[in-house]
Amino acid sequence: MNGDIETLADLSKHYKDSVPADLREAKSFDWYLQEVYDDPRIARNAHQRVADMFDHYGTAYDEEAGVVEYLMASEDPIHDGENTFYGREVHESIHEFVNKVKSGARGLGPEKRIKLLLGPVGSGKSHFDWMVRRYFEDYTMRDDGRMYTFRWTNLTDVIRDQDPADAVVQSPMNQDPLVLIPQEQRDVIIERLNEQLDAPYTIRNDQALDPASEFYMDTLLAYYDDDLQQVLENHVEVIRLVASENKRQCVETFEPKDKKNQDETELTGDVNYSKLAVYGESDPRAFDYSGAFCNANRGLFSGEELLKLQREFLYDFLHASQEQTIKPSNNPRIDIDQVIVGRTNMPEYREKKGDEKMEAFNDRTKRIDFPYVLEYEQESEIYRKMLRNADVPDMHIEPHTLEMAGLFGVLTRIVEPDGSNITLTQKAKAYNGEIDDADDVDVKKLREEGESKADIAEGMEGISARFIGDEIAEAIMDSTHRGRSYLSPLNVFSHFEENLENHGSIPEDNLERYHRYLEMVREEYKERAIEDVRHALAYDLDEIQRQGEKYMDHVMAYIDDSTVQDELTGREQEPDEKFLRSVEEKLEIPEDRKDDFRQEVSNWVSRRAREGQAFDPQDNDRLRRALERKLWEDKKHNINFSALVSANELDDDERNAWIDALVEQGYSREGAREVLEFAGAEVAKSELEA
């Protein structure tokens, strides 16, 4: 048998290793009390456990943005990166969400608020909510995230009318075993726990037992003459509690039904009619703790499309969040402990925002904006992830394809800049980090201007990544049907153009503007394709390196006010200002900004030298582009441009050499032919007319 094949024994062992060792064990209350003294974090509340969960999987600090990136979102360690999130705006939203949970963990107020994720369709808020639930399940399986509850045992030995089917009853609300201790004695325990707790919060628990457990406790205390120890030793077992959405245990999702059929019992639970004949109508044992708030206790409640609920139905959420209790109809109140998360799209939010009768609800929510991504290269990573997770092994994605798709999406989301000193495309590039310090563009000011002009926030409107991803998928299938094994920007642009009008979520008033943006993206791609063709026609890596080293020698001499050795004569000479400007002018750096650029490049080289890295112009995007453009100017006189216009004048060796050069840049051979045809004529035309 092949040694790489997993046998049943292997699979069984892997499964057993993956579950907590004490998952099936029943422990005594005395054992639990000692465990809590040893590790007080076991007794955390829901906000505290969720807050620690985010830190458990790792963090990284984005100094430039001032944002903590949580690795469960940026790397997705438990799913091998399958569900990573991209974009500064998204990580800012996640950072804000976690901060609210952490504030709630410290008892600062957000623990009594609904965390409302607000964003346009397809912005990732639902997926983030899903990820939080998956990671919470995983965290409670680990030692750092463990929690416990209890079950009542041997009840028929004492309670005469107890249904034999209910001889063992798990805590209906999965409460922490500490709740079994009366409040006065519990406070003494908690005080000692906090004395040894190493955490930014304190353990707190003033919950009452749920009505059924309170009934059992009262009945058993009466039987044992108020001997609590006898009750806990004879009738209570402590068991490991693991969150599971499938089992509706500590994780629950709630979806609005038809407005006419909304029933509060879906949230709070209802009478267990099968037990009415056994216990009677007013008996707490005849209640069914199957409401969404009951199932979510000790963990996460997720409300989908929350603002689609009727106003009256939302009052249950107000009480649950503010008072941290629920009040089922004709039943005693029940304490709850959970992080309540809601999600809503923009139309519902706008509708409810101006409703004065919603003031109480709005006051009890903490809104977290979940905008679209505004950096087009980060946006392209979303599509790249989509393709990684799909079965498209034989489709070559040509250079710029996903980036230009991302650029189109971003253009529809950002606010048109004021004034005429910067275009919308330049603003998108600035957000993408392509504007250097030497450029006269203030990105921070652009962001502030965008936020001030946007209805709610920049990035809360526009075309979703979902629409663009769907069109990329259609373009791939269309290419497959046509027998093409590559996907280029031109393919994707065609699908955008054809299907913008057919997409139901795009307002008709925006179509003309979006078509204009698509033309702007076409123009940007044309410029990049022309650069790639020029690169293929004239590129020489060794010459780039040599010219780069020469440029840096002369820059250093210029900055130090010294001389440089002539390559041919060996004599010392002044820095060659004509040569320096011939490079800098390729980036359109004006005379009065040349010193800034030279100092910037000098600082970059010095920084790399301190880090032990050799000079390589390929590692500096601006310098590389300048040197490539200068090389083009130097070599273009030897290129047969008429051959680019007329295929009849191009011999096979010459064409193949150009195609080979494009393949080295990442093109497929078919894609190289397309871009050579698309941009080659533009290159030739501009040079022949010059």
Automatic annotation (TrEMBL):
This is PrkA family serine protein kinase. One of its GO terms (molecular function) is kinase activity. The keyword Cell membrane does not apply. The keyword Cell cycle does not apply. InterPro entries: Prk_AAA, PrkA_C. PANTHER family: PROTEIN KINASE PRKA (PTHR30267), PROTEIN PRKA (PTHR30267:SF2). Residues 27-421 form the PrkA AAA domain. Pfam families: AAA_PrkA, PrkA. Keywords: Kinase, Transferase. It comes from the Archaea.
